[in-house]
Design goal:
The chain is α/β, with parallel strands linked by helices and 146 residues long. It has 6 helices and 4 strands, in the order ααβαβαβαβα. β2 (83-88), α4 and β3 (104-107) form a beta-alpha-beta unit.
Length: 146
């Protein structure tokens, strides 16, 4: 099955008509990724962080930090004054997470004891909260131990 905007590029924009008060023109000097709406992913991680009962300077760990939800969670967490431990795999994800402000990075592909690494970074006791932004089952099972 081909799903426009999901498994195939494009979203039928050339066929969509809308009332002018329902659209927002994007200025020519603004890049598309800067103007993109947050939608579901943005609201999901914002709510998770908002209800995490964390305070500024607390540690939050984000398994899947370099993905679609995770990269938004990093930005929200930093704006909320939290210290971020980003977990994901590979140099490209590390670079993105650090660019967005993550305080610490754990590469799950090379780290043997992820829970131990989180605890070591987070003052020896672990993070104050974990927001799982990955579909990997291990992200959920380990989150309690972080």
């Amino acid at each position: 099955m081909k799903l426009s905007g999901y498994t195939t590029d494009g979203t039928f924009q050339q066929y969509v008509v809308s009332w002018v008060n329902n659209v927002t023109p994007i200025p020519d000097n603004l890049e598309s990724e800067e103007a993109a709406s947050l939608l579901c992913a943005g609201v999901t991680v914002y709510r998770a962080l908002k209800y995490s009962r964390t305070l500024p300077n607390d540690w939050v760990v984000l398994p899947g930090a370099g993905g679609g939800l995770g990269h938004l969670a990093i930005q929200y967490a930093k704006t909320m004054g939290l210290r971020v431990i980003a977990i994901d795999g590979g140099e490209e994800k590390r670079h993105l997470c650090q660019k967005l402000g993550a305080d610490a990075w754990i590469d799950y592909t090379t780290t043997k004891d992820i829970v131990g690494a989180v605890k070591q970074i987070a003052d020896g006791v672990g993070a104050h909260a974990a927001v799982v932004t990955t579909a990997s089952p291990s992200g959920y099972t380990q989150a309690v131990d972080y």
